[in-house]
Amino acid sequence: MLYDDFYVKSLIQTVEDWPKEGISFRDITPIFSDPKGMRMVVDAYVHRYIATDITHIACIDARGFLIAAVLAYELQKPLILIRKKGKLPGKTISQSYDLEYGSAELEIQQGAVKEGDHVLLFDDLIATGGTLFAAIELLTGQGAEIKEVSAIIDLPDLGGSQKLQENNVPVFSLCAFAGE
């Protein structure tokens, strides 16, 4: 099934004033209840990454898990979970970050990646880049190389994808909501 940007973008809902007033939240949840949309999204990523040197897929809590888990299965790659503080068992490494509506902390398990690993970092959307930069710090701090940051949605007006690219991090998204 070919990827249809218009179709997938039409599934994404905008929830105003969530999680706080003034935020227009882009909700990918409807993609998961639409088998055609879900297939298009997964297939688009499989086709993009099947012939690459990616050795691991890392994903960010929680919506990033949903597509990344399927992608890791399809590409037969290990899946690395990057979670909110206190959600991972065992020894972890943490990194704090700011987001457009507050601050938080991410963790990864110690030894989840190692020197020479080539990682695709996946999240549901790219906003200010704070979450992604924290995740990059966690992964590269253990020696991994970020091959690309990938998301379903880019919000270019918030500047995250531009900041990533300015820091020599390749970025890919399936669709963007600019000026909307």
TrEMBL record:
<keyword id="KW-0963">Cytoplasm</keyword>
<dbReference type="Pfam" id="PF00156">
    <property type="entry name" value="Pribosyltran"/>
</dbReference>
<keyword id="KW-0808">Transferase</keyword>
<dbReference type="GO" id="GO:0044209">
    <property type="term" value="P:AMP salvage"/>
</dbReference>
<dbReference type="InterPro" id="IPR000836">
    <property type="entry name" value="PRTase_dom"/>
</dbReference>
<dbReference type="GO" id="GO:0016208">
    <property type="term" value="F:AMP binding"/>
</dbReference>
<keyword id="KW-0660">Purine salvage</keyword>
<dbReference type="GO" id="GO:0006166">
    <property type="term" value="P:purine ribonucleoside salvage"/>
</dbReference>
<dbReference type="GO" id="GO:0002055">
    <property type="term" value="F:adenine binding"/>
</dbReference>
<comment type="similarity">
    <text>Belongs to the purine/pyrimidine phosphoribosyltransferase family.</text>
</comment>
<keyword id="KW-0328">Glycosyltransferase</keyword>
<comment type="function">
    <text>Catalyzes a salvage reaction resulting in the formation of AMP, that is energically less costly than de novo synthesis.</text>
</comment>
<dbReference type="InterPro" id="IPR029057">
    <property type="entry name" value="PRTase-like"/>
</dbReference>
<dbReference type="GO" id="GO:0006168">
    <property type="term" value="P:adenine salvage"/>
</dbReference>
<protein>
    <recommendedName>
        <fullName>Adenine phosphoribosyltransferase</fullName>
        <ecNumber>2.4.2.7</ecNumber>
    </recommendedName>
</protein>
<dbReference type="GO" id="GO:0005737">
    <property type="term" value="C:cytoplasm"/>
</dbReference>
<comment type="subunit">
    <text>Homodimer.</text>
</comment>
<dbReference type="InterPro" id="IPR005764">
    <property type="entry name" value="Ade_phspho_trans"/>
</dbReference>
<dbReference type="InterPro" id="IPR050054">
    <property type="entry name" value="UPRTase/APRTase"/>
</dbReference>
<comment type="pathway">
    <text>Purine metabolism; AMP biosynthesis via salvage pathway; AMP from adenine: step 1/1.</text>
</comment>
<dbReference type="GO" id="GO:0003999">
    <property type="term" value="F:adenine phosphoribosyltransferase activity"/>
</dbReference>
<feature type="domain" description="Phosphoribosyltransferase">
    <location>
        <begin position="47"/>
        <end position="148"/>
    </location>
</feature>
